[in-house]
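Following up on my earlier thread - several people asked me to post the actual chain instead of describing it. Fair enough. Here it is, all 236 residues.
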Amino acid sequence: MDAPRYLAALAAILLAPIPVGASEFGDVERGAEFWKQCRTCHRIGPNASNKVGPNLNFIFGRVFGAAEGYRYSKAMKAAGGEGRVWDLDQLDAYITDPRSFLKGTKMTFRGIKDPQERADVLAWLRENSDNPQDIPEAAPTAIGTDHSVDPEILSIVGDPEYGEYLSSECLTCHRADGETDGIPSVTGWPEEDFVIAMHAYKEKVREHPVMQMMAGRLNNEEIAAVASYFKALGQE
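Reply from S.P.:
Thanks for posting it. Predicted structure:
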């Protein structure tokens, strides 16, 4: 193919519209169709219970073998004891061939060999399990940052009562008791660390669309207030 035709073809690919329901790694609508095969053993959504397999609410970021009330295999519990966590790569490898991935697993499913089908299922699973947190992109929330913030901003003393009022949206994802459930805990965070992280999202140094939106709504005093509130939660 000559250069002009190659460039034209490349441009057509890059500029093609993203299908409705598509994520950056899979198509949610196609994943929903494939998920029908999974419902025999698994449940997901509000008040989902364990069935033949564990419920898959907040599976992204969850430690292996951590669904409350489910009787896991010794292999799965051992993996959890080693601190293994379900992220996108681990889930993709597991549903490719469960028994090869984890010797001794109770999961008898034969696996999904087609990479696109796996991507679609995982896109659906994330959409219905963890949104609006957009796991795995939320992981940097728990990681420190060297992002610089004006010392005058860091010196603002936040009002924890005002922070409690502002925190209602935060608490739809981050639990007040400090439990993770797949979402990084911010309870008890040092105020300075919290403020630095929020300004990193506000200035789009950290890439997470939901956190960028949330931080962008708050002014400096409001961020300080929320930081003060979550710090105080850790002292209760």
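Confidence is low (pLDDT under 50) at residues 6-23. That should answer part of your original question.
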